[in-house]
Amino acid sequence: MAEVRKFQVTFDCAVPERVARFWCDVLGYVVPAPPPGFASWDDFDRALPSEHQGSKFACVDPEGIGPRLFFQRVPEGKAVKNRVHLDVRVATGLAGDERLAALETECERLVALGAVRVRLLPADDINESCIVMQDVEGNEFCLD
């Protein structure tokens, strides 16, 4: 049996801290402590050469279970659909109207944080219904 390894999910984006803080709010993640010798991430960022300031940010699961999320600034904007996306599981174990209500409630919360609702994908023979959304920079993700 293969050994389970820790991994991180990396997002290319224009404003790393903005996208990271959005995902902190979505997932209940936190910003880790700054490197030793720095009182804050702002202090660390100011110590970098100007061309690297604001170029990266991260957030972590406070329980240490979920993957680290890393956000890096890239010069190009998003042009096509993501090849990989996150599924935010909010209705696990629910069915029918109860499931749809849970999805809609979470969708409203995330829209208030800056997400955009794209569409509801109805259930089919393989998948239950889910809501396709976009984060604050247009990266797709699903509520399911």
Automatic annotation (TrEMBL):
Endpoints of the signal sequence: none
Matching Gene3D superfamilies: 2,3-Dihydroxybiphenyl 1,2-Dioxygenase, domain 1 (3.10.180.10)
Pfam families: Glyoxalase_6
Domain Glyoxalase-like: 8-143
Protein name according to UniProt: Glyoxalase-like domain-containing protein
